[in-house]
Design goal:
Length: about 500
């Protein structure tokens, strides 16, 4: 019984494939010649010629073991095209040539999957498109073609799913109306970005990017626009993978997104009618940036809790902080009026949710809540404010003259609707978890540190935040326990 010889089988298969590719390259010459008959100088001709050269080189027609070399194939290709350009009659049986070209291209696509991996995805799809064009031109069987092209598409999807997107997800970055969703940056400060704009004719794009380390900005250029997310992701993976391999680069972290990007993004949308998808994307963007910003303290968004009399008793620094907060509160009220006005996009329609995100991003929930609560508190008998919002204002209405000049001029109905949107955002974000637990405290000091905030539990224990502006370490947190009705502080947390 004859024994199976795997090596001899593979060698025979290789020669069969190589012969098929030779016939495919010849057929591509006939295809290009037909294009030349219709348009002598079509750019498609050079594209097909480059593919023919790549096929011949890829399958080793330069290794000296063949009756025809790559140069021979290209000369035959050029002769056919020249003959077509001068009006000569084309030679070649299209009906015999078509299967060789279609199957040869399919074989080439299959081999790229295994030999090149993710880098080949764009090339495989270009081969698929060429197969479809040739089949249409030459009336090749559609059922066979569908099976071959679907197989290549399946391989590309597998490559995409098995190749994680380079870089990291991005929030808060908008360029030319497109929201960047993914970016990769390499150690030469260049990289690529993937972005989406559902309202654009081509809703997806990939850009090359350059990070300016001096000013922290990113430049976007060489955009490639796509109709589908899948094709854009493929292009993004291929561009990033090829570039990294070509220059032997490593990925580096992306620069942080500046919180003011939220405001810039909303500015592009606030005065027009937006789709639900756009509003949802903006809400997710706002939530992500808010979560990140909440991990750090922005002094400009802190609301000074004491009135001027207590500030004077505490220190000159407190008085200065009181006045700067008073100014900030007034500016916040003005900003609220402006953003409500800017959110108008047609008769009786306002983008109040976007407006709320913008002003909260700029001034913080604490200040916005306090200013809005002050408006309702000063007009408690106004029936245009809902009972729910009037009840809400009791929690946030400040007991300090720092808000006396924070007066809004917007219509009460709009203010009422705006408050409802702010409350809904606050609830969705569960923003209360970022607030300091407990309550503001004044009058007690420990070792020169005044207690500013206190939380006490029902087991007789608690924590305080203390402040000593002139100390080299101006803040301290202490734990305490109540003994004989007095707080005994015993640990610096």
């Amino acid at each position: 019984m004859a024994r199976y010889n795997h090596d001899r089988f593979m060698e025979a298969q290789f020669h069969r494939d190589k012969a098929l590719i030779g016939r495919c390259v010849d057929g591509l010459g006939l295809y290009a010649a037909q294009i030349a008959e219709e348009n002598k100088f079509s750019s498609k001709i050079n594209e097909v010629r480059n593919l023919a050269e790549n096929l011949a080189n890829y399958w080793g027609f330069e290794d000296g073991t063949n009756t025809k070399s790559t140069a021979d194939f290209l000369k035959a290709f050029d002769d056919l095209v020249d003959e077509a350009r001068t009006g000569g009659a084309l030679s070649g049986d299209i009906y015999q040539t078509a299967p060789n070209v279609i199957y040869g291209l399919h074989r080439y696509g299959e081999d790229m999957v295994t030999s090149l991996g993710a880098e080949s995805m764009n090339d495989i799809l270009e081969v698929r498109d060429l197969m479809k064009d040739i089949a249409k031109r030459w009336d090749f069987e559609s059922d066979v073609l569908d099976g071959l092209t679907e197989q290549l598409e399946f391989e590309v999807r597998n490559l995409l799913e098995s190749s994680p997107l380079p870089g990291q997800p991005v929030v808060g970055v908008v360029n030319a109306g497109y929201t960047v969703t993914q970016s990769v940056l390499f150690d030469n400060d260049r990289g690529f970005a993937l972005a989406h704009n559902p309202a654009a004719p081509s809703p997806f794009v990939t850009w090359q990017i350059t990070h300016d380390s001096d000013n922290g900005g990113i430049d976007y250029y060489w955009g490639r626009y796509r109709d589908t997310e899948e094709s854009a992701k493929i292009d993004y993976v291929v561009r990033a993978t090829e570039y990294r391999s070509q220059y032997n680069l490593q990925e580096k972290p992306l620069p942080d997104v500046a919180p003011d990007t939220v405001s810039k993004y909303i500015d592009t949308m606030i005065s027009r009618e937006c789709t639900q998808d756009e509003i949802l994307a903006c809400r997710e963007f706002f939530a992500t940036v808010y979560e990140s910003a909440a991990k750090t303290i922005d002094p400009a968004k802190l609301v000074y809790p004491f009135d001027i009399q207590i500030a004077r008793e505490r220190s000159e620094v407190d008085v200065s902080v009181f006045h700067s907060n008073r100014k900030m509160n007034t500016e916040c009220a003005k900003a609220l009026d402006e953003v409500i006005s800017a959110s108008y996009y047609k008769a009786n329609h306002y983008n109040l949710e976007l407006a709320a995100m913008k002003v909260i991003n700029d001034y913080g929930f604490d200040r916005v809540n306090a200013v809005l609560a002050k408006q309702i508190d000063s007009r408690q008998n106004d029936g245009r404010f809902s009972d729910h919002n009037k009840c809400w204002r009791r929690t946030y209405c400040p007991n300090t003259k720092a808000f006396d000049s924070a007066v809004m001029n917007a219509h009460p109905t709009l203010i009422n609707s705006f408050v409802s949107n702010v409350r809904e955002l606050y609830k969705e974000l569960d923003a209360s978890r970022f607030e300091l637990p407990g309550r503001v405290w004044d009058g007690e000091a420990i070792d020169g540190y005044k207690i500013a905030h206190l939380i006490e539990f029902d087991n007789g224990q608690g924590f305080v935040i203390c402040v000593s502006p002139d100390d080299h370490a101006p803040y301290a947190t202490l734990e305490y326990v109540i003994e004989d009705e007095e707080r005994v502080f015993y640990e610096d947390v």
